Inverse folding.
C-alpha cells in the first residue's frame, strides 16, 4: 500500500477506554478528525459515545462513528440496526463515513463472513446516506476476508511500526491508516490510537466535509401538543420543524448548518427549504409519539 505523507490530515479514534477527553485541547493539537466507538455487536452502546460525539463536534473536529462487529453474536441486519439507532439517537451521522470494525470472524466461514459484511454495509449506507468503510488489520484480512470485498469497500487499515501498510487481502491502498495504538495527545489521558487520512485536510473536507444530505423525503404535518407543525421523513426518521421546541418549552439555540443546541446537547438536523427540521426524539426529554403522529409529554 502507499506510504503516508507529512501533509496528510491527522486524526485519532477513541472509545470509553480513553475516559474523559478534553476535546478543546485535542482540536488544538493538529488533530482534524476522530472516529468514535458507538456500538459493539447488538447489545453494547459505548458508555462515552454520546458525550464524545457531541463534544468532539462542538470542538470543530470532523467526526465519524464505528461499530465493533460481532458476527457470531447476531445477524448483520440486527447489528446494523442497533448501530444506526444508537447514532441517530445521538444527533445523527457526522461528516466521516460510518465504520465497521472487523477483527472477529465469529466462527463464520469466509464466504459467509463476506456476505455478513456486505449486508451490514448495504443497510448502513441506506440509513446514513454515505458509503461505510471497513477497519481491519492485515493479519485478520489475509486469512479471513475475501479479496472481492476490496472492489467495493474503502479501507481503514491498522498497521503499526511500519513506513507503509502491507497489502491486505484484495486491498492495495488505504483511505485511512491507523499507524499507532500508543500515541500521546494533549487532552487524552494515556495511550490513544493515531490515524491519518490519505490526503490533506482540504482533501478530507472536500471528501467528507459535511453531514450527508437527505436524498429523499416525504413532507406532511404532525401535531405537537395539539399544534400542527410541518415535518419531513428522511429514511426511517421523522424530522419536525424546529419551532416545535417553542411549543414544548425546550431550551435551545441555533448554531448554524442545521445544528441546534437542545438542553445543552448539539443535535444535527436537516435544512429543507430554508428551515431546520429536527429528529422528533430530540424535541424534548421523555417525548412520545402516538399513532396519529401526535407528539406529547
Amino acid at each position: 500500500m502507499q506510504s503516508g505523507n507529512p501533509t496528510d490530515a491527522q486524526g485519532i479514534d477513541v472509545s470509553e477506554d480513553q475516559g474523559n477527553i478534553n476535546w478543546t485541547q485535542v482540536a488544538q493539537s493538529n488533530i482534524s478528525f476522530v472516529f468514535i466507538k458507538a456500538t459493539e455487536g447488538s447489545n453494547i452502546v459505548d458508555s462515552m459515545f454520546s458525550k464524545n460525539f457531541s463534544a468532539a463536534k462542538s470542538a470543530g473536529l470532523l467526526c465519524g462513528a464505528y461499530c465493533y462487529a460481532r458476527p457470531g453474536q447476531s445477524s448483520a441486519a440486527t447489528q446494523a440496526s442497533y448501530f444506526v439507532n444508537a447514532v441517530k439517537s445521538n444527533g445523527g451521522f457526522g461528516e466521516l463515513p460510518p465504520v465497521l470494525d472487523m477483527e472477529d470472524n465469529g466462527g463464520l466461514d469466509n464466504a459467509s463472513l463476506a456476505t455478513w459484511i456486505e449486508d451490514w454495509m448495504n443497510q448502513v449506507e441506506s440509513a446514513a446516506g454515505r458509503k461505510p468503510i471497513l477497519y481491519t488489520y492485515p493479519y485478520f484480512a489475509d486469512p479471513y476476508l475475501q479479496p472481492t470485498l476490496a472492489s467495493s469497500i474503502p479501507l481503514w487499515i491498522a498497521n503499526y511500526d511500519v513506513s507503509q501498510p502491507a497489502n491486505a487481502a484484495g486491498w492495495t491502498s488505504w483511505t485511512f491508516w491507523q499507524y499507532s495504538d500508543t500515541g500521546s495527545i494533549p487532552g487524552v489521558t494515556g495511550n490513544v490510537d493515531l490515524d491519518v487520512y490519505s490526503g490533506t485536510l482540504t482533501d478530507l473536507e472536500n471528501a467528507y466535509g459535511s453531514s450527508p444530505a437527505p436524498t429523499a423525503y416525504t413532507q406532511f404535518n404532525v401535531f405537537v401538543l395539539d399544534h400542527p407543525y410541518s415535518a419531513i421523513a428522511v429514511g426511517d426518521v421523522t424530522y419536525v420543524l424546529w419551532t416545535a421546541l417553542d411549543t414544548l418549552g425546550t431550551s435551545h439555540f441555533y448554531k448554524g448548518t442545521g445544528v441546534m443546541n437542545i438542553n445543552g446537547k448539539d443535535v444535527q438536523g436537516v435544512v429543507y427549504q430554508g428551515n431546520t427540521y429536527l429528529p422528533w426524539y430530540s424535541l424534548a426529554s421523555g417525548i412520545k409519539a402516538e399513532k396519529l403522529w401526535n407528539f406529547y409529554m
Observations:
- The CA atoms of residues 9 and 202 lie 8 Å apart.
- The longest helix spans residues 110-128.
- The chain is about 25% helix and 30% strand.
- The chain has a mean pLDDT of 89.
